[in-house]
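During the no-cost extension, the postdoctoral fellow (Dr. R.K.) reprocessed legacy sequence entries with the updated structure-token encoder. One reprocessed record is reproduced below for audit purposes.
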Amino acid sequence: MLLRLSGRLVALLVMAALTLVGCATAKQTPQAATPAAMASADADGDGVTDDKDACPGTRAGARVDSKGCEIILELSGVNFAFDSANLSPAATAALDSVVSRLQFHGVKRVEIAGHTDSTGPESYNQQLSERRAQAVADYMEKNGIEWWRMNVVGHGESQPVASNDTREGRAQNRRVQIIDLTAR
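Re-encoded structure tokens follow.
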């Protein structure tokens, strides 16, 4: 009985060894990723390559900024008037919902990014974009969001979302984005 078991055991081991040898010869040696493939990888599928993604793991389908961080709200349709940083009643209504979201949905920090169209000197537009972002931050602080949770930046005319060649395009570019920084 012991010999028969040993024979079966030997047969099983031989079959297992042959299977492993067959698998080993069929396997290809893993290739090292090329620098180009690594640079173009986008693990979270947000459209920003991993080498430039400041917020890896962005949820699927989220709108992101150029750094791969989720945009909570782009005040679309609530854009600023030409040469203005004043919030309209429509903008404050939209911001009220953002304040509520920040208070109740676990978003700890946000970036408030102001933008302008390309009309006027670049240095002036930079300052105007900062004033727009600050106006939003001031409103949010007055409505319960602590100042330390907000990072205010201006991008001037450097990140248009529409053509500056048309009146409508310029209006779309006079905007503020609110971006979730919690993951950073």
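The CA atoms of residues 74 and 177 lie 4 Å apart. Confidence is low (pLDDT under 50) at residues 1-30. The remaining legacy entries will be reprocessed before the final report is submitted.
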